[in-house]
Amino acid sequence: MAYINDFKDPILAQRLLIKTLKLENRPPNTQNTTTPKLENCPQTFNIMEVCGTHTMSIYKHGIDKLLPSYINLLSGPGCPVCVTDTAYIDMAAELALQDNVIIATFGDMLRVPGSTCSLSDMRAQGMHIQTVYSPLECIALAKDYPDHEIVFLAVGFETTTPVIALTLKSAIKESLHNLSMLFSLKTMPHAMENLILDKSVNINAFICPGHVAAIIGTRPFEVLSETYQVPMVIAGFERLDLISAIYTLIQMKHDKYYGCQNLYKRVVKPEGSLKALSLIAEAFEPASSSWRGIGTLPQTGLTLKPSLSHFNAALKFNLTLPHAKVHPDCMCGDVLRGLKKPIECLLYQKLCTPSHPIGACMVSSEGTCMNYYKYNS
Amino acid sequence: MCIAIPGKVLEIYQGEALVDFGKVQKQVNTILIEDLEINDYILVHAGYGVTKIDEIEALNTLEVFKMLCDDF
Ligand code: SF4
Fold first, then answer.
1. Tell me: domain B5-68, CATH 3.40.50.2020, correct?
2. Contacts B54 to A, Cβ<8 Å
């Protein structure tokens, strides 16, 4: 495990952090003429990370508190649980009420509030809701309960989609007719593009999601960086990974250039995972997707290919999109876009806490509000 | 839920492997990983192996990080 633990090395991380803090005093290196130059470089520098695991790691290691005040770390919509729309939970709750339906879900989804209740509340009332570690477990569930319909709550980004596609493939191979899924799959590049184009947010640089990049490769992020002249790094999740990511971005700001650097080459190949990509393309096609507190964004989700529509639980059970009720003071949408810090939400720590979440960002261990609560309170 | 964790491959079966995560061992789907060998480190998410962790690249990256620190 030697080289894996090396990325946690606190001494090296500390030295790199000190170097990061000294960067501002160094004269800019403008000798390099081959790198594309940033035209506008603001004084304050807003760096957004768009992966829940990055959010968790930054708060856990207190990295946000160690940086100079002109560096502002923002957490974006990178946690799949946090971006799940209230209407989606309401639809899952409606399914849970049907006779002979077993809901299978990742554990984190249980406590996400719907309009009137969460799935955890429904489980307490006796509805059959089963947590799974992997969607592949649904195959055994469908065989164990042949008289029931297993409905998997298929949420996630590009990292999770391949194993969902694998599950569908397996269900076809085993001729299972009692497995379907409620889909809310999301994709990252167009969501990032939306954030860049949203001028109220003002993001100056991105720490790109390392495990999404492991699937889709480096190119989509390079294209975004080139198109919008935004410095980006693809980073791993240990403290050394994150500090070096921030160091690299500050260096890019300091020397006024942009581009997308891959600092996670041990996992991310330029082409990504071709096998995973072809598996995704076999089952899904691009679609718009609804993001909690943000709204529907084109090209930020995936929908089943028409030939597989029998796996779509919304069609199978004839569900219509409910009109969801959200607490009027909930600021999850603003927190997810980096516009507001959790502490600016009126509900934070008063009505909304990890034991009684009002918004989804307070539920998952990767949620911004949850991490803020855990490490700042 | 998007966490992916590294583990060491202990045994290989058809399309699956037994992976050691330090405290627990788990069987994971490895269909997406090519040329898997015992003792490889792989990244696992939601019950499937996402990719192998490239030792040479890991060591190269560590070298780069160390050089950054040395060059004060
Ligand atoms: S404190 Fe609660 S309601 Fe407010 S933004 Fe965070 S999760 Fe949403």
1. no
2. 265-267
